[in-house]
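User: Fold this, then the next.

Assistant: Folding the first:
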Amino acid sequence: MKKCSKCGMVVNDPNARFCEKCGVALVDSDEYTEKQKSKTSCFRTFLIICAVLIPFIAIYAAIAIPNFLKFQAKSKQLEARHILTGIYEAELNFYVKEGKFSTDLDEIGYAPASTPKYYQYKIIHADETTSIVRVWGNIDRDDNIDIWEITENARMPVRIYDDVSDTGKQIDPLQLR
């Protein structure tokens, strides 16, 4: 007894090679059953593997994605530090030459190495003895902004408000505090 692998028609003629209904080659009934069992077994194995792997992938993504976003935000914050350091050095050079600080970036000779992508910057205050430079930007697309500043005394950029962890003192970036 032979069976069509396409339409399932049973042919009792032992000499028949092709199905009369659809023209597909016939296989022995036992051989057909083994192929079907093999296909079902493969499909079950595939489903079991998927059922085990998908939760692991989801757990990995749940751990990795937030860590990646924090790392990405920290790398964006490097731009603030570079801007502040550049303006600070230009202000100190201007102070050595002129004996005072200035709020004019062109006057102190500052030009950024490249156009800032994430931050705006401004010299908030400058007189004969003090200078305050501030940069701000929204790096994680929420309502809070990241604020950094440097003064003539600090010599290192100081974070006023951290936009990533939303900690610090939220202030207007263009006003003195």
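Now the next one, as you asked:
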Amino acid sequence: MSIRERLAQFLIAIIILPNGQAAMAEINTNGMMEAVETCYLGSDPFAGVPECVGWASSMCQEANSYTTNDVVDCIAFETSIWDEYLNLIYNGQREELQQRDLDNPGRINRADALLAAQRAWITFRDEECSLRYAMHQDGTIRSIIHADCIMNHTARRLFELRTVARG
């Protein structure tokens, strides 16, 4: 199954509400996936986070944003795409490092180090974004700031992981 098919299945699952109604039915999911894919594939992994992170949610917001919740949903939708890529890259890097570790027994286990780093990064991301939420707790912007923080940290981590196994 291609990444596009996996993402489509995943994204369909997150936009169906418990009552069976589709949320944000007007979202062009293919357009959002293409925007993220173009951003990811067209960016230099050593240049940091590209400016194109957030373009997909901007497309969604232009078409669907009427409330704070709509904006947050658009950002969360793009985040889910970045997160799917992140999981694919992380799992691939971990498998590659596990193989290297098997080929070099008795040395520091790189796959375990990556796992520990990833767990620490998740904690850092969540706490950092919770801090930003808390800093704006008296306004409705807090949810947008939190969602944007999660998206940007997730995309940044993806670009960081692209270079891990090369080191």
